[in-house]
Each structure stands twice: as C-alpha cells, then as structure tokens.
Amino acid sequence: MQRKYLAKIFVTLRPSVLDPAGVAVQSSLKQLGYDNVDSVRIGKYIEVIITEPDERKARQNLDRICDQMLANPVIENYRFDLIEVESQTGVF
Amino acid sequence: MQRKYLAKIFVTLRPSVLDPAGVAVQSSLKQLGYDNVDSVRIGKYIEVIITEPDERKARQNLDRICDQMLANPVIENYRFDLIEVESQTGVF
C-alpha cells in the first residue's frame, strides 16, 4: 500500500550566516516608516507531495532530498513537517 | 510597554499560478531517481522580529508589511504565526 504525504519544508540560513536580502528588506521597511522591525531573515518554504509506503521511509527520502537538492548544508538548516494526505490501496 | 514578537511568515504562490522553479526541482529529483515525488511548490519563509505595544497592532502592521513588501498579492498568498518572544517594560 502506498501513502501520499505532504511535506512542509523550511530551509533557513544558519544563524551565523549573514542574510543580505533580509537586511535589504529591513532597510526598505525602515524607509517606509517601519522602524520597529528589528530583524528580517529570508528562507525558503517548500511543499512536496511524495508517495511512500510508510512515514519512516518518507522521512528518510525527504532527508536525502533536502540534503541533495533543497538545502545547502554548509550555510542552511532545514526541517519539515509531514502530513499524510491520502492513502492508495491499489484497489481502485 | 513594548513587546517583541517573532512572526513566521509563509508566502506561497496561489494554487492557480504555475511554479516553473518547483517543476524544475521535481524534474531534477526524477533524474536523481525520486520518481515518487508528485508535486513541488516553492515559496518563501520569512522570520521578522517586530516591536509593538500589543498583538493586535503587530498583526495589523505585519499585514501591511506583507501586502506592501513581502508578497505580491496578485500571484501570492501569505499567512503568519505570531509568537511573543520578549517584553520590554522600559524599566531597564
């Protein structure tokens, strides 16, 4: 039996890495009058739908996908939430 | 009294909008052997720290910041979670 999982993946810069894009947004916000914004950090949010036999296997493959393709482990961290969205019994 | 809030902002393409970057990632994953990935959608994840007197005011300003700067309302949706991280009483 195959199950469909929705992975909500967050890729963020490691705290020690500078984020020039975030600094630029913060500076633009200041010019717009938002001088109460103390920090802006910009990351990626990726939704992946994957078909796997079980959650363990899904987590395993998503870890590999994040390491190989979605995140740069040298400067970025990632984490994901996994939600089962649909089961396929192969009967229909 | 001023409070510090951490806003975790998710900016996603509207479901009806094509995501060429997501399609490219999905296609690359297929070439790497992950042919069980059904869909990839790429959005932004932004962390903002903002100082406001209360949560209502923080939500109001974050809505304006998202509309004006972080999201393109024509093709993107946004939502955010708000967490109070620190209070400043002005005493210290």
UniProtKB/TrEMBL annotation, chains A, B:
SUPFAM superfamilies: PurS-like (SSF82697). Pathway: Purine metabolism; IMP biosynthesis via de novo pathway; 5-amino-1-(5-phospho-D-ribosyl)imidazole from N(2)-formyl-N(1)-(5-phospho-D-ribosyl)glycinamide: step 1/2. Keywords: ATP-binding, Cytoplasm, Ligase, Nucleotide-binding, Purine biosynthesis. It comes from the Bacteria. GO terms for molecular function: ATP binding; phosphoribosylformylglycinamidine synthase activity. Part of the FGAM synthase complex composed of 1 PurL, 1 PurQ and 2 PurS subunits. HAMAP family: PurS. Part of the phosphoribosylformylglycinamidine synthase complex involved in the purines biosynthetic pathway. Catalyzes the ATP-dependent conversion of formylglycinamide ribonucleotide (FGAR) and glutamine to yield formylglycinamidine ribonucleotide (FGAM) and glutamate. The FGAM synthase complex is composed of three subunits. PurQ produces an ammonia molecule by converting glutamine to glutamate. PurL transfers the ammonia molecule to FGAR to form FGAM in an ATP-dependent manner. This is Phosphoribosylformylglycinamidine synthase subunit PurS. The lineage of its organism: Bacteria, Bacillati, Cyanobacteriota, Cyanophyceae, Nostocales.
